[in-house]
Each structure stands twice: as structure tokens, then as C-alpha cells.
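Retro notes
What went well: the complex prediction finally ran end to end.
Inputs used:
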Amino acid sequence: MQRIVRSGRQNEKEKKTSALDQLQISILEGKKEKKSIKQQRIGQFKEYWDKTGRDLIEIKDLKDPEVEMINYIDFLIEQNSTSANIVENVSAITTLFKAAGLSEQKINGKVLKQVLKRTRAKIKQPIKESTSYSINTLLKFIELQADKLQTLTEAQFLGCTFISIMAFCTLRMVEVLRADVQQNEDNSWNINTSMWKGDDTDAEITFRPLVNQSICPTFWLSKWLNRIERQQLDKPLWWLKRTNKPATEEFTSKSIHHVMEQAGIENNPTVTSIRAASITKAFSLGFTKIAIDRFSRHSDSSMVTLKSYDKNNNDEVRREISKL
DNA sequence: GCGCTAAGTTGTCCTTCGAG
DNA sequence: CTCGAAGGACAACTTAGCGC
């Protein structure tokens, strides 16, 4: 499996080099194409290069591209460039140098890495301690909607069903979207989906009816199937009557956002935030890391949760420590 | 409004480094 | 030597925005 993936990546690289050949030709001949960001950077570089009184063609014969790059960085710092700009410049010029036929080893050496270290550090995204909203807000809203199913639009219905599923099994949106379900004899439901991230395996998740029926995925799923009048797998699960097609990713994403907005969640958070909120709640309930790994199906949860999930915990830890 | 594309974000894999 | 942490590269996922 892995080998196949790798050879795929290599193909990508081959494609890139051929694109680079074109880049090389257009740059070295000085042609102007559409302005991409990368070319703007190269324009900035050309300004610097012209000041040194050389022709762009001479890049090919550079003895020590690394030193050249460092000089250029100094030049940018003198001009009070932002850190982000410098990093992007280096990336663009590396591409340019490579296109001109210089070897990567010569360009990207240890010294350059050291020089860039401080600059890179400045643009890193900090690990934020922003508090995420509580998943309870969403669940309460869905509970309310369950009483007035008839009045919901198709989009609202879809959004509620998705949120219910995502809150309880932390699948990603697309994973739910390509899933299929079936009802078992004991009234539990199986969701079959394939995960492309992570282990690249199929997942089968079983929902059993919860005490609180109104927020239970089983309830929403059965109502959804009623609504689209599906008999025995004759249609895809997320079939929309309105368009007579399966729901698209974009439409699903928009519906979920819409429901979240109606539930009174501010700042328009992303769809994955549902996953995050759910995992955060699991942590605050005191489940072990192992249980949460299994629940979220992260293979490497410590870093991931630190980066993206479990956002409220630090406050709680501090509060507990402060108790004497 | 829909569908598409490009840009932005998130997650995993792989490598390197340093401590024990 | 082994383990965990950190960082880079890249793939997968999500969203914004545009043209129709």
C-alpha cells in the first residue's frame, strides 16, 4: 500500500519538474506571464539581482547559491520585510534556482537553515488556548428541532442529522458523506464508511438508541430515510429531493454552518470544530487518553489534541491547582 | 443558487536530535 | 540503543469566492 502511495508521489514530482522547465524557460527569457504570487517574489528578487549588475542567465553558473540566498535575505531584512515575506521569498527563489538547474543540496544547506530559524519562528502559529464552544449548545438546539421536524427545510434537516452523527462518533464530514447506513434487528444502526486519512481503513460504527432520543443519531437517521423515501438502498444515503442528486460537499458544509449559526454559535467556526468540541467534552468528563484515542480514532492523539483540540482544559487544570 | 477552483487549514508520515 | 519530541513535507479536508 505504502509503496503504491510513494510511487504516486514520485509521479507528482515528475510532473512538477516538467512544470519547472517551463518556468525556467519563461523566467530566463524574461517573459511575462500571469502574475502569480511566486512571480511577484521573483520580481522582487530580480530587482535585487539587477542592482548587483548581473543578468538572470548567470544564475545557472552560480558557484554558491546558499551564500547568494543569505545575502538576499540580508537585503530583505534591510528593507524591513516581514518574516512571512522572507520565508516565501526563500521558497520562491529556491524554486527559481532549482529551475535553473542548481542542485538542491547546494541551495538548502545547514547555514541557510540556521539563518532562517529565527525568521521561521516568528511566523509559526502559536498553540492557542482559545476556548471552544460547548457541544451542549448544539445538542440542545438539535433537541429543540426534533419537535418540529415537519417545518425543517431539507438543508436544516441534513445539517441536524450530520451534527448529531458527528457529535457522537467524531467522523469527519466527508467520511459521513460517503457513508452508508443500515438498521439492525435490535434497533441499532450501523454506519459504514471508509477513512482516507489515518489508517486508510474502513470503519463500522454502531449506534444504539440513547436515552435522550431527540439528539440520538439513530432517531435522526431513521427520520431522514423516511423523508427521502428510501426503500432498501435504492438511493444514496444523502439523496436530496430538491436537486434529485446526492448532497455535495459544499452543500453539506453550508447546511451545517447554517444550523450552527441558528444554534447561536458565534464567529462561524469550522465544521471540524464539532469534532473538537466533542473531544473536548470527552476530556473534561475525565475519560482516559486511551478511551479518547479510540473514540476519536486518532493514532497520534497527544500532539494533535494539543494542537487542535482539548482547548478548554488548561483553564480547568489551573482552576483545580488553585484550590488549596 | 449552483458548481467549480484555488487558497487555507488540519492531520499523518517520516526523519532527526538529544536524553537516559 | 530506545524513546519521545519536534519539524518539514505532503496529502486530505474545508471554505471562500467567482462565473454562470
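What we learned: The longest helix of chain A spans residues 2-28.
What to try next: split runs per interface for comparison.
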